[in-house]
Sequence to fold (117 residues):
Amino acid sequence: MGGIYHLDTCFCPLTPDSAIYYPPAFDAYARDVLRSNVADLIAVSDEESAHFACNAVVLGKTVITNTGCPALHKELRQRGFETAECPLSEFRQIRGSAKCLTLRLDGEDAAAWRDEG
Fold:
């Protein structure tokens, strides 16, 4: 993908024990740390990373990404998530996508897993 410049372009937490990530963005040590701390890591392909798959918005059990991430959406649905895609190609030109276009004002208080404990 021509260089990862922010963590939100290569890593997206979904729940306390699952996340989307782009493995080549991390060195071997970082991948080991991720595997040790995140039970369910969903790897994103080079092609889907180029569509900013990890720059997703997570609203409870719904994950919103740019178009062009069918394999990721399939993996997410198999894990019980709902998926939605929005055409954000114009924003990709300036190296941004779904998460870059949001401003969360409620922080972790809105996280679905907050109600589970």
About this structure: Residues 28-37 form the longest helix (10 residues). Helices lie at 28-37, 46-50, 70-78, 89-92. The radius of gyration is 14 Å. The beta strands are 11-15, 18-21, 40-43, 57-59, 62-66, 82-86.
